[in-house]
Write a structure and sequence with these properties.
The chain has 5 helices and 5 strands.
């Protein structure tokens, strides 16, 4: 089976309709009522594992709340603009991150391509670094507070 060919922006431009949110909520209820004791889900002759059921219910839960969902295989290669959009930074800033070696990339002809996995790993490192910096600032403020 081949992976679908798509662009991240294809999935993030609209919110689910009321019909879709209702349908997702109904599907969640049906899944929960049909799961086996170990969390698997029988579908005809097939049995979905509990981890796959969890993935599906996570997706349906997001849609049921009226939120936008984007999905992509972790092996997906992104353009620099797609990677910048995912990180909520400018494309020139992303190029600097690539040139500084903060995010791995490969050249395809004259174009840079960035693995989705590498972008998500950078985003996680950046988040952890920000959290640590905020904790350090809180610790300093607590140390300065005489009460």
């Amino acid at each position: 089976m081949t992976e679908p060919n798509f662009v991240l922006a294809d999935f993030g431009d609209r919110l689910p309709t009321a019909e879709e949110t209702d349908s997702a909520a109904e599907a969640l209820t049906a899944i929960e009522n049909s799961r086996t004791a170990n969390g698997a889900l029988p579908i005809g002759e097939a049995l979905l594992s509990s981890s796959l059921v969890g993935l599906i219910t996570d997706l349906l839960s997001i849609v049921a709340r009226g939120k936008t969902v984007t999905y992509a295989p972790i092996s997906r290669r992104l353009t620099t603009q797609e990677a910048a959009d995912l990180l909520n930074v400018s494309r020139p800033h992303l190029i600097k991150l690539l040139q500084n070696g903060e995010i791995d990339h490969e050249m395809v002809g004259t174009h840079r391509r960035v693995a989705l996995r590498d972008v998500l790993e950078y985003k996680a490192r950046r988040g952890a670094s920000r959290k640590a910096a905020l904790q350090e600032m809180q610790d300093i403020a607590d140390a300065l507070d005489p009460t």
